[in-house]
Specification:
Order of helices and strands of chain A: HEEEEHEEHEHHEEEEHHEEHEEEHHH
CATH topology of the largest domain in chain B: Sulfite Reductase Hemoprotein, domain 1
Distance between the termini of chain B: 89 Å
Radius of gyration of chain A: 24 Å
Strand order of the largest sheet of chain A: 1-2-3-6-5
Helix content of chain B: 25-40%
Distance between the termini of chain A: 80 Å
Number of helices of chain B: 15
Strand order of the largest sheet of chain B: 6-7-8-13-14
Number of strands of chain A: 16
Order of helices and strands of chain B: HHHEEEHEEHEHHEHEEHHEEHEEEHHHH
Largest sheet of chain B: 5 strands, mixed
Number of domains of chain B: 3
Oligomer: heterodimer
Radius of gyration of chain B: 27 Å
Shape of chain A: globular
Chain lengths: 358, 417
């Protein structure tokens, strides 16, 4: 018997089916919002309707059991509706404040934190890591859990100098905007790929493999029907491994994490900017990544102690100067911090204006 | 649940932040796949190395993407995750769900996979983690029967995503949800059947706050803006001042173009709209008092991507202002997308993002090919070097070069010697 084929190209369900009535009634009519308390927003419509949003931190990796429990809470408190944010939070949408505290009480009793709004630490955007990716240089869920445990209070309160957005990517593919975050930690490699000539010749397209290298470090090895890596040019990005599994780049003792700081995506005030290297390498130290946790805590603390009210991480550094940042944060400045990739020269200081540091 | 010990992962059940390990353990009570996923993860924690291999080619009938193959490299030790493939399920615009919609996903995933999910993946899809090969088609059949479709993967259009927009935000300059849904449906073929040099991402933010990070995370970044004036409710300004907001220090002094002023005596706030760059700062600080303009649309930016291969790029302006009206079915934007994709498809190398192609070929070529006019809004500053090109028709022809060429240059202001 021929089974009927599933319908294809139907597209996602229409969002209108998913919206609560209060949003249907006030779509495009929202007038302003207020921050009621950390994790709770109140949106007021020109119709006079008020919508309360309760934001809940989630580990992103959740099971269907949790999905069903969240669905039950949405039924109980929100007429069967909820949404998620781009930073993995869950948001419950209430059409009055009457039952808000009961909902918050139930969530908190089950260990779900309420927060992440206004001048707080938002949830950490992150990737798959060792849970489910082939190219991860470190774990994502574990490093994020360890850092969020340590910075938990900053998610729950909103009295930081400004918003704090931390991101995590488990390799240089950087699924997740880590290149433009206040603080970003990224899994990196530090050694050249080990080439399995037989595997390369059998399973990989050599022209694609050569083209995958940002520094032109890979050249053909016709004798072995494989490739050779110029070790002086390779900076261990792992892109060759992504296109060819026979370029093994994982190295348990040398892989680790780098930390970048000072980026943002929002256009408010200053425009969007890239994060810049603060710490070139920290070891992979599962299960709790103590060195990473301590380094991030220090970076957050120096910003809290030194930034003016309203200054995002990068805005603070731009005001004081990067040379001062390294001094205040107590970070060694190394040759790793000086760019030597494509667009390096405009990052050099072409002026005699700078501050002396101790 | 087996009695395998996982001392490393047990450490990540401690602490106040919700534990992904507990999430996995809960599913492991009923799923051997989830159980082995945990055991394999413990192995990675001991070895400090990932144990997943590259994806082989897996998929469902009719599609070239949407399912990512995943196999573990220790299949004998961890047989239940020998095959552990990922589904990307296209989320509803704005990530709104009914509880029944969530339950329908949970039910399908309980039947066919590990019960583990990501809400959501980096591009915006619901990610279903871990299904065996033999369940892929039946899982898709059930998803489809319940009204769900797959997102993009590989060298195709990736699932577009958007901010909460007019559903809950007073700063949405156009209907981000409608545009996201419309484009996703318009380009189903591009989304499901990889045919391009590489991936192409679209992200849609209703204002310059860019809540979906479109400028950093999408090849095409659509960012809402306006052309007229910021609305001011002076009574509400007075309320903010009376309630202790330091308007001079926290709003006026932080305006990037010195376009705001605050009269502390009269307690009035004014904006020099001609010099305002619509960064959203003052509106963010006083949402009750200030409103986005009424002549609304979006700035279209192109080229954003992460580091690999040529460098990370932030998208740059290619259309300073475009109207995005639901009634017009976004034809101008769709037309532009079609032209860009055609040019990229013809000229891009394998795994070359459109931003990298523009970097290689030059903006002048790109603009000409897609029919856009150079405008000063496209650059921070003009070039400092004298290495620029001329099109043949912009040049005077040598004497006696022939009438045909002379005709080609006709209509230009350049005069022959």
């Amino acid at each position: 018997m021929v089974k009927t084929m599933a319908k294809t190209d139907i597209g996602p369900p229409h969002y209108e089916q998913m919206l609560p009535q209060i949003i249907k009634d006030n779509y495009g009519k929202w007038k302003y919002f207020e921050r009621v308390k950390p994790g709770v927003l109140k949106h007021v419509s020109e119709t006079g309707d008020e919508l309360y949003t309760v934001r809940v931190g989630s580990p992103r990796l959740i099971g269907i059991d949790t999905l069903r429990k969240m669905a039950d809470l949405a039924d109980k408190y929100c007429n069967g509706h909820l949404r998620f944010t781009s930073r993995h939070n869950i948001e419950f949408l209430l059409d009055s404040s009457n039952e808000m505290n009961a909902l918050i009480g139930e969530l908190e009793a089950r260990g779900w934190p309420i927060g992440g709004t206004g001048n707080s630490l938002n949830n950490i955007i992150h990737t798959q890591g060792w849970v489910h990716c082939h190219s991860a240089a470190t774990d994502a869920s574990g490093t994020v859990k360890a850092v969020m445990d340590d910075l938990y209070d900053y998610f729950k309160a909103d009295d930081l100098p400004a918003k704090l957005k931390i991101s995590m990517a488990c390799c240089l593919n950087m699924c997740g905007a880590v290149h433009c975050s206040d603080i970003a930690f990224v899994g990196i490699h530090r050694t050249v790929p080990r080439i399995d000539d037989e595997g390369v010749s059998k399973n990989c397209e050599i022209p694609n493999l050569i083209a995958s290298c940002p520094t032109g470090a890979i050249r053909p090895n016709p004798k072995a029907k494989s490739v050779i890596v110029n070790e002086e040019k390779c900076m261990y990005c792992g892109n060759c491994y992504t296109v060819c599994p026979s370029m093994k780049i994982m190295d348990p003792e040398n892989d680790g994490l780098a930390i970048f700081v000072g980026g943002k995506v929002s256009n408010s005030r200053s425009g969007p900017t890239f994060s810049r290297l603060a710490i070139p390498w920290l070891p992979n130290n599962p299960p709790r990544w103590d060195e990473l946790v301590e380094a991030v805590r220090n970076l957050v603390d120096v910003w809290i102690q030194n930034a003016k009210k309203g200054e995002r991480y990068g805005e603070w550094i731009e005001r004081i100067g990067w040379e001062k940042f390294f001094e205040i944060a107590g970070l060694p400045f190394t040759d790793k911090h000086i760019d030597d990739f494509k667009f390096s020269v405009p990052t050099f200081r072409s002026t005699s204006n700078f501050k002396y540091t101790k | 649940m087996s009695d395998k010990k996982r001392p490393m992962l047990d450490e990540l059940k401690k602490g106040p932040w919700p534990s992904f390990v507990k999430q996995m353990e809960k599913q492991a009570e009923t799923s051997e796949m989830a159980e082995d996923a945990l055991n394999l993860l413990e192995q990675s924690y001991n070895d400090k190395v990932v144990h997943w291999k590259h994806g082989g080619i897996v998929g469902v009938r009719g599609y070239g993407g949407g399912v990512i193959g995943r196999y573990c490299d220790m299949p004998e030790e961890f047989p239940n995750v020998k095959e552990f493939h990922t589904f990307r399920v296209n989320q509803p615009a704005g990530w709104f769900y009914t509880s029944d919609a969530l339950r329908s996903l949970a039910d399908v995933w309980e039947k066919h996979g590990s019960g583990l999910t990501n809400f959501h993946g980096a591009t915006g899809d619901v990610v279903l983690l871990g299904a065996p090969t033999e369940h892929l088609q039946s899982c898709f059949d059930d998803l489809s029967a319940n009204g769900w479709d797959l997102g993009g993967s590989g060298s195709d259009l990736r699932t577009p995503s958007c901010c909460v927009g007019p559903a809950r935000c007073s700063s949405a300059c156009f209907d981000t949800l409608d545009l996201c849904h419309n484009l996703t449906n318009q380009f189903q073929n591009e989304l499901h059947r990889p045919m391009w040099p590489y991936k192409f991402k679209i992200k849609i933010s209703g204002c310059a706050n860019d809540c979906v990070s479109s400028i950093a995370r999408a090849d095409m970044s659509i960012i809402g803006t306006w052309r007229d004036v910021i609305g001011i409710d002076q009574d509400a300004v007075k309320d903010y001042a009376a309630n202790g907001l330091e308007i001079q220090e926290l709003v006026v002094d932080k305006c990037p173009t010195d376009a705001c002023t605050f009269d502390a005596e009269q307690m009035t706030f004014n904006v020099d709209d001609e010099n305002c760059v619509r960064c959203m700062h003052c509106i963010n600080k006083m949402p009750k008092a200030l409103q986005i303009g009424k002549d609304r649309g979006a700035t279209i930016l192109l080229g954003g991507k992460a580091t690999l291969v040529q460098s990370a790029f932030l998208s740059w302006v290619i259309v300073p202002f475009m109207k995005l009206e639901k009634e017009d079915d976004y034809v101008e934007l769709k037309d532009l997308l079609d032209k860009m994709w055609e040019w990229w498809d013809e000229n891009g190398k394998v795994r070359e993002r459109i931003g990298e192609l523009i970097y290689r070929k030059g903006m002048r070529t790109f603009l000409k090919e897609v029919g856009l006019k150079p405008q000063p809004q496209m650059v921070k500053h003009p070039r400092a070097n004298p290495y620029f090109f001329w099109w043949p028709e912009e040049l005077a022809k040598e004497k006696g070069e022939g009438d045909a060429l002379g005709e080609a240059a006709a209509g230009k202001e350049i005069k022959n010697g």
